[in-house]
Amino acid sequence: MLGYTASSVTKRQGQYIKLYEILEGDLKHLPNSSLKTLKLMGNVEVIATNLEFEKRQFKQNNSLRSARYKVNLLERIGIKRCALCNCQIPEIIQGAHVWPVSIIKKQVLTFDQQFSHAISGDNGIWLCENHHKLFDEYIICIDKNAKVRFRTTDKTYLKFLHSITLQEKLDEIYYSDQFFKYLQLRNRAI
After folding, report:
1. What is the mean pLDDT of the chain?
2. Do the Cβ atoms of 142 and 164 come closer than 8 Å?
3. With contact defined as beta carbons under 8 Å apart, do 15 and 26 qualify?
4. pLDDT by residue (tens digit) across 28-54?
5. CB atoms closer than 10 angstroms to residue 108
6. Fewest CB within a 10 Å sphere: which of 81, 107, 136, 170?
């Protein structure tokens, strides 16, 4: 019923939604009749995932596009909005790991500890695709005081970066003790 209602509201606005069906424990798939109804709505994508699938993905890749991670970010931070430019186009907003998965996987931790860090809502910020790529490449950094910094001396690049980056400092919604620990771990790699 919730999926149908969300679909009806967003359909009027010409928007699409993704529903994450996280399967764990005794939770099973949505009933076929519900899935068919949502499919008929035309603007709903149901993404089924489970903990074991996400753990396999984590083992195989140095990045993690996890439904569980996105849900954790939504619960902690709220709506998808780029932390640096305020873009709210959900199709291009991504969860960016503060402490990158590739670095987490190199730590002397158990697999479950590594996975826990990788899906933690404290280990992420919402970024548009452009800012996510710049953040991943360490061209855009965030210092220990949550201020946005650029790691380039090229004046043309700096002019462009300033023009697309509206926030000089992260909003306080991102702040937590654990977030700042992840930020410190990230900045050690620079």
Report:
1. 87
2. no
3. no
4. 566 677 767 777 777 877 666 667 778
5. 6
6. 107
